[in-house]
Design a protein that fits this description.
Largest sheet: 6 strands, parallel
Radius of gyration: 19 Å
CATH superfamily: Aldolase class I
Strand order of the largest sheet: 1-4-5-6-7-8
Order of helices and strands: HEEEHEHEHEHEHEEHEHH
Amino acid sequence: MALQENGMQALGWNYVNLDDCWALQRDPENETLQWDTERFPSGIPALIDWLHERHFKFGLYTSAGNQTCSSGGRPEKIPGSRGHYDLDAATFASWGVDYIKLDWCGDIKYDIPGGHAAHLDFANAVLKTNRSMFLEVVAGYWFFLGDIGSVANSWRFCEDHHDNWKSTSEQLVCRISQVANATGRPGAWAFMDMLDIGGAGCAKGTHCPGQTDDECVRAYVRACLPVKPLFACLPACLPARCMLCSCVGWMELLLVPRRQLIRCMLASFVCFCTVLFFLTGTGRSLQSGPSRSRQ
């Protein structure tokens, strides 16, 4: 597997997360989510087992609303989890999912008053499974503010990150303006969205990076600033792309303080990064019990 062959797993990149577009519909008999059999002919559980055998953990996406954010080029809308929080959480647990991303798309976007209850209900559904699953929420912070750490393991406080320098610059501004919201603690982290450095795709189906190598590495340094796990949207066909070119491969620099990272970024000296939170943080997940204590 590419993540093993290029050394990323050894550096702590041990989650493989599947974002939107994996599902197709609900089973008409029991209403469980069904994967797209054309895209995943062996099924999601088989994929998870295959990854677990290789010592990876697996993350899966859903939405708090009745639909997800994208159909992935298919004509049908993809069902979200609204009205099925308990069922979907139990389904994910039975498949062996380790991480859940809860997005904010579908009809829930127009039910702002219901946002607080929706996130709390989904978090409780995860707890009831008795399986340790990391919960990331995209919109949850804005409904819970400082209490969000009691509901989710990580929360977004910036817009989506895209593979272009304008988006990376906006994320830097967001980090400065939302500095009070970017604090975290073990088991509960603020999150600036995944590090999107793989390109949006090209006409022939390959990925075309949208940033130069220097911009790409600056984007990586930006992602290192909050105390949080790191996630990268990176095609396996780009194994030398920024994260492996004089950045995350530098094991000696795992403990560089963040103030040095900031100085490094401002000085355009982009070799110093850290993957410390990948190595030490991602094992803490929502656990059963009223206190939502984390292991």
